[in-house]
Every structure is written in C-alpha cells, then in structure tokens.
Design a protein that fits this description.
about 240 residues, mainly alpha, 9 helices, globular, Lysozyme-like_dom_sf
Length: about 240
Amino acid sequence: MGYGRNVPRPAAPRALGVLLGLAAVAGAGAAAAEGTTGPSATATAPGNAKARGRTAYGELLMREATARGVPPALAEAVAFVESGYDAGAVGTVGELGLMQVRPATAAMLGHRGPAAELLDPATNIRFGVAYLARAWSLAGGDVCRALAKYRAGHGEERMTPHSVDYCRRAHDRLAAMGSPLAAVAATAGPGIPRTSASKTRAAPTAVMFLANRFWAAHVARVRAVEIRTARIMEGG
C-alpha cells in the first residue's frame, strides 16, 4: 500500500512460503499496466477460490474491521480487489498477502516481526485493516476517497484514473455482496480533484524509475539477509 499503489504492476506470483523467494520476482519489474478488471494481484487458485476465500477470511475481516470502526464489507472488498482473497499473493514492489500490505507500512503500524509473517492471513488482515481504518477516518467516511487513500497512500488527494478504476472494482464487489455501501461507491468521492489524462500520462516514467530503484534496493537487502543467514549456518 502507500507507495506501491502509485505504481502500475504486473500480475504477481504466489508466495511459496519463504519470503526470500521475493528476489525471484525482481526480473518481472514493475512496469506493466494497472487497471485491469480483476484483482490487483493475480490469484492462481481455481475458479471457486474467491468463494472459498471469502468463507475462510470473512470472519477475520469482519472482526478486525468492526473493532477498528471500518465497515466490514469495505474491508472485504479491499481484500478482493487487492488479491482476489489470495493469502499468498506477492506484489512486485513488495506488497504481501490478502490486503497487499507492504512490510514498511506494517512496520509503521507497529509490526516488529519478519516480513514473511504478513503472509499469515490474521496478521495481514490486522495491519491491512489498520491502514484502511486510518484512510476511512481521513476520508470522513467517503468510500471512494478512502479507497484512493488506501491504494495510493493516506496523503492522496487526487482521484486518478487508477483510483477511479479501483473504486469501480470495489463498487462491483460491494454490489455483488449486496452491501448498501455500493450505492455510495458508485461514483468517485466528492472533494478529490480528478487528474487530467495528460497529467497522468506524464507521471509513469518518474514513478517507474523510483519503483525500480526501490525494488533493486529491496532485492539487495534480501540478498544481504541470505548471505548473513548462510554465514550463521556455517558457523561463521
């Protein structure tokens, strides 16, 4: 979330249980176009995985959202849009799990464990909903504005084409769930200026440059951890 949501990204692979495997994703880069009609991170499970995911994680999402004052349906819609209920989804700029939480964001919210713990559904939902709750509060309960802030960072005050599409996908999910929030998510939230097409076309080059630099630094950190771990295992 945050920085990662400003960057278009390609379909992401599932995690294989070891976070160090993230280094293998680096070659995919972060340069594919966003704005498809499916979840932000591609789920690789069979066609009925979404129904199973909602059943498996719905209670966790409801409990955490209720505790933090967020409409449970909104938290569920975010999990659907972000990962298609894929607890093992990994984004190309480090987003992890059901709600595509970045390790840096989780750390900001108080997470002190290893990044791999964010692949645990309960942990991921806890920090993802915490971030969403702040977005919801800052947006004053405006659904699309809250979604834009979750997608692009709490400081986001624009309704970019990517955020409009994100809100549309969340609206579709809310409608499918029969949530009354679908009615208020039908259009982009008031009070957020829309960016023109010409402005949004100028941004990707600089954004992708920063994204690639971030990912290169991330891979270097992962490699350093691997080296230190190997030395420890060798007794050195």
